[in-house]
Amino acid sequence: MADIKKLVSMLKELDDLLTGCMRCGMCQAQCPVFAQTGRETDVTRGKLALLSGLSEEILKDPEEVNEKLQRCLLCGTCEANCPSGVKVTDIFLRARAILTGYLGLPPTQRLIFRRLLTNPKLMNNLLSLGSSLQGLFTKDADSVIGTSCARFNAPLIADRHFKKLASKSLHSQTPHKDTPSGKSGLRVAFFPGCVTDKVFPQVGQAVLKIMEHHQVGVFMPPNQACCGIPALSSGETEVFDNLVRQNLDLFAKGKWDYLITPCATCTATIHELWPKYYGDKMDAVRVKDLADKVMDVSQFLADVLKVAPKEAASPAKVAYHDPCHLRNTLKITAQPRQILAAGGKYAAAELPGGPSCCGSGGSFNIKHYKLSDVIGRKKAESIAATGAKIAATSCPACMLQISDMLSKSGHSIPVKHVVELYAETL
Amino acid sequence: MIRDALKNEFQRIVGKDNVMTEPAELHAYSYDSAVLDQTQPAIVVRPENSESLGQVVKLCNENGLKLTVRGAGTNLSGGTIPHPGGVVCLTTALDKVLEINEEDLYAVVQPGAVTAKFAAQVAAKGLLYPPDPGSQAVSTLGGNVAENAGGLRALKYGVTKDYVMGVDFFDVNGELIRSGGKTVKCVTGYNLAGLMVASEGTLGVFEKLILKLVPPPAAYKAMMAVFPDVMDASRAVAAIIANKIVPATLEFMDNFTIRTVENFRKAGLPVDAAAMLLIEVDGHPAQVEDDAAKVESICKENKAISVRVAKDDAERNAVWQARRDALPALARVKPTTVLEDATVPRSKIPAMMQALDRIAKKYDLTIGTFGHAGDGNLHPTILTDKRDQKEWHRVEAAIDAIFEEALALGGTLSGEHGIGLAKSKYLKNEYGVGAINYSRRMKSVLDPNNILNPGKILGPLLA
Ligand SMILES: Cc1cc2nc3c(=O)[nH]c(=O)nc-3n(C[C@H](O)[C@H](O)[C@H](O)COP(=O)(O)OP(=O)(O)OC[C@H]3O[C@@H](n4cnc5c(N)ncnc54)[C@H](O)[C@@H]3O)c2cc1C
Ligand code: SF4
Ligand code: SF4
Ligand code: SF4
Fold it and tell me: In terms of CB atoms within 10 Å, which end of chain A has fewer, N or C?
């Protein structure tokens, strides 16, 4: 284990960011984790205080601080509402990188990150093998939502009602795409993201159908790497750099106007985190260029293509969940609702109690399943309370979580991506 | 360190999950919203029902453990910074609204209920709970009562104490003491409920609160008046009151705050103005029209450059957004934000503003001032960086000077933030030793082991 003095001096670099917190406690109104536990170590202010405590050597156990720090969804709600403008997610990501560097990741997790995540081909092969075997271990839970649960006692699956890996992933349905711009005069690069690719290929197909409809050319190169957020939020900065570089090289191979994704997390990661955390400063221009051009698919449709809502006589209500990374990080809330209504068939129904995190938060869901579960069930109840027969959102990771929660709470409400519903009307 | 046997006792009372002793957990309860040094407790407990709350108090007393009750920890005077090695008792699990009575206009709540959530439930029943501290989105009603919190509506509607009808609390022996009641009038016995208001956790631990509700006003109108000179703005405040108009809110912002807010929000605020008043009148529609017109002309008579009356809810919201932005905008200027609440008689606001100006120059500090002009409660906000030790010493000296000035003008140390640890050393300057001795004698009888939030308000007690 490295020298604790070194750790302290690295944490000191966060000092300027940390002192911005005036300890007003207003984040208690925002944090979904605190809402469940009422504990100061679970709210932003407490976690920031722990980091200060560690850097000032009042606290001496980095492991303990790290454990508390992991109890965060990185949903950014506190940051979006902090009176002092504290860069919370920035601090947490940097702190996680520092602490992971010091403590090291558990070996299996490290292996997954280093060997698998950075090797899209290997991962794809393994997962398609998994997809054909998964029927052996799982049984159907809710046929409307399309969830399954574990047949045997499996610790990682627990009592999750998960969406199965698609029998055919998007990249095996459509390995690549390179079409010229049509009437629109535009060409987009398409980054589906892992969850779309492996679990919801139909979301990717919907995007492709929509682009074809609006005569937008598509550049979708094969062997795309993950956007890197799982690595970054676990503090694996080297893996993150590796993934970003792979994607940079890949997308440099085509000419296009915008980079679009149907994944709120991917969009936010590419837009905000790639330029901020990519280690290779020589490559800053390429990263910035991509970050400037990335767009959530609804944002592209509404803002660039000017797809407008269509009046409908009696639109079906769709309960819309705002993904945190769109709402808090990118401030995109109007466009997905606009696209929902664009087909002239649906209208967004607002969730009682206003927008809130679904409780997924990537690996948070795995490490703190119980907490994730309570937060998610509240979300499921608020969706059910709208009386809508369909739920929709703009992030495949949220789709996974919400499907799990609705299925377990016994609400047979299918969960769709906004673009699926729009594509359906074309 | 807390002994294992005691830890087990606490676990038996509140359950294993609700006892915290890890260093990180203790560290997270070593501060509140005040800019003061941190101290750590030895144990943190989180009772989930009133029986266990009472038992926690009793156990502490029996073992001479110093007890600090903590709501949201948003107080600005160090009231929840624990005694070193003491016990912190959280009320976050005691957060239920037990009753909202629409016939008799009262509500019964647990102490950990969050102010804004409670106010929203009350509003949903067509009633109003007026106290609205700036921290209401997170502050607890127990904390509000213990600090006698005020808010934007205090001018017309009063502060928390005006809404406390009853407090059920545990004494140090863990005995539940009932006080006050559900009737509008109640003069049975000593006014123990009144004694609990502003007691900052030093006299008893609240178990339940009975709070008064009122019918909401039928109409309201907000406006923004801009002044070329602080004196003109202050004269306008005095004239509004002298004309027998009591606005619901009458807020003030100085030039520095206006500029900082404008920088932050770009809402088109008058950056050249020396001062701004944000005013809202409410009540019966006809009277609101009348009052609004009068306020407008009084402001103009007092040399207001412009008076903008909000035409609809969106414009009204824009007025209040400017006020809500004051703290966030100032807080972003420098790392450390010291928010004070020295309060003077309304007529002394101009003198206080001049004094603040002098103090800022003398100690070479940036001070933005905003606050509740209508009740003389200003928030001079010092922007600094605590890590700059030299400047920090000047900040401390400036704070001393601010309180000295407020008292010299016939004002008070605290309009709403309480005394806690931060201002206990000034207490004798306001009330003299007599009041302190009387209070100490009272406390020594009610809390002979001095376990209830020791050191707060009255300073360190001599054994
Ligand atoms: C951004 C910001 C804005 C603010 N605006 C205002 C404002 O406009 N007006 C205003 O008056 N204040 C304001 N405050 C100060 C603070 O929010 C209030 O004092 C509030 O009432 C504190 O509530 P709390 O739940 O956080 O109490 P805490 O800070 O947790 O506790 C405050 C005191 O109450 C005691 N206490 C808490 N619960 C109990 C109980 N059950 N029994 C006995 N004692 C108890 C504690 O021991 C402590 O002494 C503001 C603070 C911030 C950070
Ligand atoms: S809201 Fe912001 S400044 Fe206030 S305590 Fe939370 S992180 Fe700190
Ligand atoms: S990012 Fe979300 S989960 Fe994490 S501290 Fe902020 S509000 Fe809480
Ligand atoms: S953000 Fe999530 S879904 Fe999107 S690519 Fe990265 S890991 Fe996959």
Answer: N
